[in-house]
Write a structure and sequence with these properties.
The protein has one domain: 3-Layer(aba) Sandwich (Rossmann fold). The chain has three helices and six strands, in the order αββαβαβββ. With 148 residues, the protein is of the alpha/beta class. It has a six-stranded mixed beta sheet with strand order 1-2-3-5-4-6.
Length: 148
């Protein structure tokens, strides 16, 4: 039996609880499906609100903070959209800690407050993750967050 790809792995509830304790209750999941959504309101397959999140206008969603755990194979369009559309609500994007990639250099570092996460969020993966917080105020910086 093969392991699910990163696109099919849901964010652990333990991490989501720590996130909500620090940043507030998640209002909307921007990249989910009916089986792995973290809140009832989401964009993605199975949603009545929109099945293609990248085609939706995220600035119309006013139930922040907004949650984004995009497919790890194609992060660039998600990071670009998060940087551009965090004008009304904070967008929290959980992604691999790939700070030398084009999507990070172009769309995360100049526009987000980056939290380096310890311990690892996904215990079954070797890869470290970061939480990029895109805010209406445009906070930029870095810190290590011991979330557990």
């Amino acid at each position: 039996m093969s392991k699910p790809s990163n696109q099919e792995v849901a964010t652990p509830r333990e991490f989501l609880d720590a996130f909500e304790q620090r940043f507030g209750r998640i209002g909307f999941d921007l990249a989910a499906n009916a089986d792995n959504k973290v809140v009832p309101f989401f964009y993605g397959p199975g949603s009545d609100l929109g099945e293609d999140s990248l085609r939706e206008d995220w600035t119309l969603v006013r139930e922040g903070p907004l949650w984004l755990n995009p497919p790890f194979k194609t992060i660039a369009p998600w990071a670009r959209k998060a940087a551009a559309e965090s004008t009304h609500e904070p967008i929290a994007m959980l992604v691999p800690a790939a700070v030398c990639t084009g999507w990070f250099v172009e769309h995360v570092a100049p526009f987000a407050y980056v939290l380096e996460l310890t311990p690892r969020v996904f215990s079954t993966q070797i890869r470290d993750c970061i939480l990029a917080m895109f805010t209406p105020e445009g906070y930029v910086g870095r810190e290590t967050w011991r979330w557990k």
